[in-house]
Amino acid sequence: MSRHLPNLLSALRLLAAPLAAFLIAAGDDMAALLVFALAGASDAADGFIARRWGHTSRFGAWLDPAADKLLMLACFVALYGVGAAPLWLTALVVGRDISLAAGAVLAKGLSLPLRIAPIRLGKACTLMQIVYLGLVLLLLAVARDAPGLLVAAAIVTACITVLSWLAYVQIFLRVLVPGRRTA
After folding, report:
1. Do 182 and 175 meet the contact criterion of CB atoms below 8 Å apart?
2. pTM for the full model?
3. How far apart are CA 144 and CA 170, in angstroms?
4. Are 69 and 10 in contact (CB under 8 A)?
5. How far apart are CA 146 and CA 125, in angstroms?
6. CB of 118 within 8 A of CB of 66?
7. Rounded CA gap, 159 and 168, in Å?
8. Burial degree of 157 (CB within 10 A; 0-12, 13-18, 19+)
9. Burial class of residue 19 (count of CB atoms within 10 Å of its CB; 0-12, 13-18, 19+)
10. N or C: which end of the chain has fewer CB within 10 A?
11. Residue in 119, 132, 120 with CA at minimum distance from that of residue 158
12. CA nearest to 70, candidates 131, 121, 21, 132
């Protein structure tokens, strides 16, 4: 059973995404923050368990980042819907993720030698997006207003998101140019 625990935790995180979005839309900010925090804890736990005891799988390698992305995208869209996240940042995050998924599908369809793996800048982007979402949810939950802090966090999140996007585009373009080293 413990062998499947990382995938079970990732699957629960998939279920947490629509729940968090629903709670945000319903105005239950403390519950949304709690679901988001528990999802983050489950992400840390499934990664630790998978690495510590070698309970990794190809399915888990796909499910874990998919659950993370769904949670973040659902939260960004829901927070935009209630006016707590700006459209420009939400569109940037969603656009980046859609283009990365489309690039992976295109590479697979064209049989390009593209190895799908996270890069450090991509991990930094994910971390900053989590920090931003956590900050927004925390401020909503405690009914505090910090517009300067939110703008600064949005700008930093946007910059890292763009840099990450460009890094992945560069990797994709490298596999399109014949004779170049594959990514």
Report:
1. yes
2. 0.90
3. 40
4. no
5. 22
6. no
7. 14
8. buried
9. middle
10. N
11. 132
12. 21
Do 174 and 180 meet the contact criterion of CB atoms below 8 Å apart? yes
List the pLDDT tens digit at each of the 183 positions of the chain: 567 788 888 899 999 999 999 999 999 999 999 999 999 998 888 878 877 877 777 787 788 888 999 999 999 999 999 999 999 999 999 999 999 999 888 888 888 887 777 899 999 999 999 999 999 999 999 999 999 999 999 999 999 999 999 999 998 888 877 655 545
Quote the strand ranges of 18-175, DSSP E: none
| DSSP string across 45-75 | HHHHHHHHTT---HHHHHHHHHHHHHHHHHH
Backbone φ and ψ for 177, nearest 5 degrees, come out as -90, 115
